[in-house]
Design brief:
heterodimer, A: about 550 residues, alpha+beta, Cytochrome Bc1 Complex, Chain C, 3 domains, 4-stranded antiparallel beta sheet, two-stranded antiparallel sheet, about 10% strand, globular, B: mainly alpha, Cytochrome Bc1 Complex, Chain D, domain 2, two-stranded antiparallel ribbon, about 50% helix, elongated
């Protein structure tokens, strides 16, 4: 071939540049020149030999993608684009995660400070943290939905049993990836979620020395500390992504090998025609599938960027403290079901049951060998599946503090209004509206809608934890239950442990410039003994702390409106 | 396919515009979060202070009102922190007294971390204390937050107490002898000495500290070379130097003495208080 200089001499500078550009584009696309790309985008028929197939043969990126799909699987149904979306989320998490890694050191001395540095000192730092955290939750959801849809359309059946098995492992890795990232901010949320999880794991039905060793390895010491953080960090950024990457390629290779299964109604029972695509049923990857995927990439990017900016903020609680256990330690929503089970059943039983469940899911396609993928033929299987989903949703709710976790009634009120961590009813009041003084629940403060709303929330929270024996219209009447020791238990509609005729008030005092202290006082008289119990709950609040923003984003009922 | 290209292009452009928009608000957002970090650090410091420091430095940091864990009022052992001599100016009075050439932040951080003398414990886990480095920073931020214009516009009181009581009473600001009636008022009400020592006529017995009945004669026998006046004067200023043998609950504890060490600082605002109390106690 002629050199560029010779081409310029031969055909003039303009034509030589065009020819050269064409050549470069053809090399970059591994087979398509500028005219081929334009023709593809216009929707023209390809020339012969078809240049749109060459990137699949010669190019690295497309050689793993099939050159055409059955038109039957290119609609939203049956795939809902969930497999593609899972891949997108993996790439998304890798990119945002790499950027966050630049500003992170896995050490208890600085990790928490790094979070504030990312939030307050790194341009777009909060956005990237939000995008990564939001992406992690979306990814778990997407992968789980992908599995659900594969089950419903019966796509796990022969010959795709192994694809299903690797998919189950990928779901497991996704959950672990998400959860291992949980610890890294080294705040109270992270520390206690992990502590509970690890100690649960150590209750496995195994000899004590095995459990002890596992616990030691996962915590890096007698309690989670510097070594433990480093281990979970390496799990999060190295081992789990590596495993997920390896199994992703195995999984995807099997998808290409067997093709995406057609909607169950499209083929005869017992047949698998995904790879026998008639000429008129072909949708070529290049350009149809490719443009479609690029469109979904753009839409998903838009959703995640806008969601991270306007809809949701990644939480950050106070510094991890091994000696202070928050009142409500909750697992993330995708593991909440296990917490629900732990409340009901024996720890060892639950921890032993979960791996059994996982294994039975993995081997399910080898045992459930019914030939038909049609819905009408799989009524039992689908019913079991939906019952299982319902069971998991109920279990998830049981994992929340609403179920069977109750401390003293005054603490429940305090936690709703002024929790140690995160936003709460009274925390969202803007600082300048926290007028020092003493206020009673439900009091209306003229000219101060924020405080009025806060006191309304105070009244609502108190109402749920209080009852009256004297006919006080502020509280509901008590249901009285005689106890064996001669005492009484008072309950109302909401709780079995209510305060009888409590006297409560909120006190706001300024203790330093720009620092006020909110104190919740409770005074309860025992109707049997006349004994008065006084409790207080004190939270300081600084003018700069900006809980208003947290309230708005985490969508808790705060008195910001 | 064309519609997909259009949708994809528009979605991508909007995503980039959203990114650009968020970049525009970054400077003010980052400032808010930098402030929030400080605000929350001060809040965390306030809790640590209330749980650990207020027993000696007082609930409001002025070393005036201290309570033990059961809520009984006790004598404050610590120096005032909500105090202009510590917090006002780039180099505050106490920093120059101590010869500290670093920053105020580091002065407080180091004192909290490593402790001071035999009374202020070491708090940092680096020196065997209970607090982590982040908690030390939180307490430091909290103490620094006492600084305000109102605090710093108050005159800074420093009074150099002479070594000997005789020199003190001969000093230019003192009317000697003091006024015993005012001394009694100061002893029982203002400084609340009688809460621990009882009354000097014995009508209310001593509760915690040694009884001061006949102190004008007993005081002379306590330390060789000191008369009663010098002994009482010295013990008010430096309670831990001499520990009395007998307290109502047995032998007196210490050193350090349970008696607050900050009467010198408090009386420095009006040294005549000392003269009046001496007059009252010693019956002059």
């Amino acid at each position: 071939m002629a050199t560029f200089v010779e081409q310029v001499r031969e055909m003039g500078i303009k034509k030589a540049v065009v020819t050269k550009s064409d050549e470069i584009v053809e090399r970059l696309t591994a087979g398509m020149n500028i005219n081929d790309i334009r023709a593809a985008l216009r929707g023209d028929e390809p020339r012969r030999p078809n240049p749109r197939l060459r990137p699949h043969a010669d190019g690295f990126w497309l050689h793993i993608r099939p050159s055409f799909y059955h038109t039957g699987v290119t609609n939203i149904y049956p795939t809902f684009r969930l497999g593609w979306l899972s891949t997108f989320m993996l790439v998304w998490e890798t990119i945002t995660g790499l950027i966050l890694m630049v500003f992170y050191t896995p050490s208890p001395l600085v990790a928490y400070g790094n979070m504030w540095n990312i939030l307050g000192n790194v341009p777009l730092g909060q956005l990237f943290r939000n995008m990564h955290r939001l992406g992690a939750e979306v990814m778990v959801l997407v992968v789980a939905m992908h599995m659900l849809r594969t089950f419903i359309t019966g796509s796990y059946k022969k010959p795709r049993q192994f694809t299903w098995a690797t998919g189950m492992l990928l779901l497991l890795f996704t959950i672990f990836l998400s959860f291992s990232g949980y610890l890294l901010p080294w705040d109270q949320l992270a520390y206690w979620a992990l502590t509970v999880f690890i100690s649960g794991g150590a209750a496995a039905p195994a000899p004590a020395f095995v459990n002890d060793t596992v616990l030691l390895v996962l915590q890096g010491g007698p309690a989670l500390g510097a070594d433990g953080l480093l281990r979970w960090y390496l799990l999060h950024v190295l081992l789990l992504p590596l495993l997920a990457g390896i199994f992703f390629f195995v999984h995807y290779y099997k998808v290409v090998l067997y093709g995406i299964s057609l909607p169950p109604g499209r083929e005869q029972v017992g047949e698998d025609t995904a790879k026998r695509v008639p000429k008129d049923e072909r949708t070529y990857f290049n350009p149809d599938i490719l443009t479609s995927e690029l469109m979904w990439t753009a839409l998903a990017t838009l959703f995640l960027v806008a969601g991270a900016l306007w809809l949701w903020d990644a939480p950050l609680e106070t510094h991890a403290d091994p000696v202070v256990t928050p009142l409500h330690v909750v697992a993330p929503w995708y593991l909440s079901w296990s917490q629900g089970w732990l409340k009901l059943a024996d720890k060892t039983l639950v921890v032993g049951f979960i791996p059994l469940l996982l294994v039975s899911f993995i081997i399910m396609p080898y045992i459930e060998v019914g030939k038909s993928r049609r819905y009408a033929d799989r009524r039992v299987g689908l019913t079991v599946a939906f019952l299982f989903i319902a069971f998991m949703l109920v279990s998830n709710w049981m994992g929340s503090p609403e179920f069977r976790v109750q401390s003293s009634p005054d603490r429940e009120v305090s936690i709703q209004l002024l929790p140690e961590e995160g936003p709460g009813g009274l925390k969202g009041i803007p600082y300048e509206h926290m007028t020092p003084g003493t206020y009673s629940p439900g009091q209306v403060i003229d000219g101060n809608p924020f405080l009025t709303r806060g006191l309304e929330l105070f009244q609502q929270a108190m109402y749920q934890q209080s009852c009256t024996l004297t006919g006080n219209p502020q509280w509901a009447p008590c249901n009285v239950e005689e106890l064996e020791n001669g005492g009484h238990r008072y309950s109302n509609f909401f709780t079995t442990d209510a305060m009888p005729d409590p006297i409560a008030h909120l006190e706001i005092v300024e203790i330093q410039p720009n620092l006020k202290e909110m104190t919740l006082h409770y005074e309860v008289t025992n109707p049997d003994t006349g004994e008065v119990t006084e409790t207080v709950w004190i939270r300081p609040r600084h003018a700069f702390s900006n809980y208003e923003e947290e309230c708005r984003f985490l969508n808790k009922s705060c008195a910001t409106d | 396919m064309q519609i997909k290209i259009v949708i994809g292009t528009i979605a991508f452009m909007i995503a980039m515009m959203v990114l650009g928009y968020s970049a525009l608000r970054e400077p003010s957002r980052m400032e808010r979060f930098t402030d929030a970090e400080l605000g929350r650090s001060i809040e965390a410091g306030a809790e640590i202070f209330a749980n650990n420091c207020a027993t000696c430095h007082g609930v409001d940091g002025t070393a005036q009102e201290c309570f033990d864990t059961t809520g009984n009022q006790i004598a404050c052992q610590g120096l005032p922190l909500n105090y202009n001599g510590l917090l006002c100016g780039d180099v505050s009075q106490r920093m120059s007294d101590m010869g500290w050439t670093g920053t105020k932040h580091d002065y407080i951080l180091t004192t909290v971390s490593a402790g001071r003398g035999s009374i202020m414990p070491t708090w940092s886990d680096a020196f065997g204390g209970p607090l982590r480095p982040d908690q030390i920073r939180n307490v430091t931020n909290f103490v620094l937050n006492y600084e305000s214009e109102a605090l710093c516009s108050q005159p800074l009181v420093t009074y150099e107490w002479p070594e000997s009581a005789t020199d003190f009473l001969a000093g230019p600001d003192i009317t000697a002898p003091g006024d015993p009636a005012r001394g009694q008022e100061l002893f029982t009400v203002t400084y609340g000495c009688s809460a621990c020592h009882g009354t000097i006529d014995g009508s209310t017995p001593a509760a915690i500290g040694p009884s001061l009945v006949d102190i004008e004669t007993v005081g002379a026998t306590m330390v060789e070379g000191m008369d009663a006046q010098q002994y009482v004067y010295h013990s008010i200023l430096y309670p831990s130097d001499f520990i009395a043998p007998e307290c109502p609950t047995g032998p007196c504890a210490g050193p350090p003495s349970v008696m607050p060490a900050n009467f010198g600082a408090r009386m420095g605002e009006n040294p005549q208080d000392m003269a009046d109390i001496l007059a009252y106690l010693l019956g002059q």
